[in-house]
């Protein structure tokens, strides 16, 4: 059998820590071994940290993929976790396990027989009732996940309308929390220098080379390139709000709102950067058209 544990975000309380989940599973397995009078062999213990099981998540789940690989390799007759939502919230992932438990299905072996939860629930995948209950449990977990995602999207939209930022990734030249520019920091000076050089006619590639040569790095600690410079100088969050140049623009889903933070660029600087970017794109298109007809 295999133990699979998961938490969506690191930093939650100890009650959801994957190490605690593992201990709960081991305790449950000791009880099962005694109750069923069988010897249980643990093939693998997987702890998936900072990985959502929601369909909205784009992060891979390598530990889940290894769990499925063990099932496909007929190494596992039981998957155990603390709750169904810890294992999966996606009906298609449950279907993969169910198909491998069915010897009549292509690739199925019948080796996987049950999904066991420490929350006092067992799904016998050799019976129609067990399969039905497993599908229902995942459907319920997915429903709760969808409701949570909708609440989060509504909250984000409300914060955007009020001019507040959201998201854990810090924007370049901003302090942690993305609600205030770090005007004394190196990044702010680098951003202003990059914009100034762009307005003087430097290419994005030349600016990237200059930034790297002078020790500037992206927020992820990587070197700049022409694309990252272009995208950075295009960011609306650095631009002034048209009706009040003392505040920046908060963009959300294509809509613009008055931000709570100060802009990086003056109105004239922002218009210059937009014009230069537009002219640069038109020059590129013209060169491409000429090249295709030559």
UniProtKB/TrEMBL annotation:
Any one GO MF annotation of this record: DNA binding
Pfam family, one: Recombinase
Superkingdom of origin organism: Bacteria
Limits of the Recombinase domain: 171-286
InterPro entries in alphabetical order: DNA_bind_recomb_sf, DNA_bind_recombinase_dom, Resolv_N, Resolvase-like_N_sf, SSR_resolvase
Ranges for region Disordered: 142-166
Biased composition (Basic and acidic residues): 155-164
Name this polypeptide is given: Recombinase domain-containing protein
Organism: Amycolatopsis rifamycinica
């Amino acid at each position: 059998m295999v133990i699979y544990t998961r938490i969506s975000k690191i930093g939650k309380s100890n009650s959801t820590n994957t190490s605690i989940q593992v201990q709960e599973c081991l305790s449950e397995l000791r009880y099962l071994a005694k109750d069923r009078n069988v010897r249980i062999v643990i093939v693998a213990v997987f702890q998936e940290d900072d990985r959502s099981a929601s369909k909205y998540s784009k992060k891979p789940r390598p530990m889940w993929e290894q769990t499925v690989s063990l099932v496909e390799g007929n190494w596992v007759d039981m998957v155990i976790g603390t709750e169904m939502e810890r294992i999966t919230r996606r009906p298609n992932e449950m279907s993969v396990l169910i198909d491998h438990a069915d010897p009549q299905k292509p690739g199925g072996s019948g080796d996987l027989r049950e999904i066991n939860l420490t929350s006092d629930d067992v799904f016998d995948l050799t019976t129609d009732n067990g399969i039905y209950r497993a599908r229902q449990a995942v459907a319920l977990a997915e429903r709760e996940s969808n409701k949570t995602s909708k609440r989060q999207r509504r909250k984000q939209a409300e914060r955007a309308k009020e001019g507040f930022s959201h998201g854990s990734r810090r924007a370049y030249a901003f302090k942690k929390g993305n609600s205030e520019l770090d005007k004394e920091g190196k990044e702010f000076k680098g951003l202003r220098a990059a914009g100034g050089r762009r307005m003087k006619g430097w290419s994005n590639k030349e600016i990237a080379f200059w930034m790297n040569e002078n020790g500037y790095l992206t927020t992820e600690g990587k070197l700049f390139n022409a694309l990252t410079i272009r995208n950075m100088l295009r960011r609306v969050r650095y631009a002034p709000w048209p009706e009040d140049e003392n505040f920046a623009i908060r963009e959300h889903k294509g809509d613009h709102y008055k931000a709570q933070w100060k802009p990086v660029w003056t109105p004239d600087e922002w218009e210059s950067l937009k014009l230069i970017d537009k002219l640069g794109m038109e020059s590129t298109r013209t060169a491409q058209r000429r090249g295709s007809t030559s």
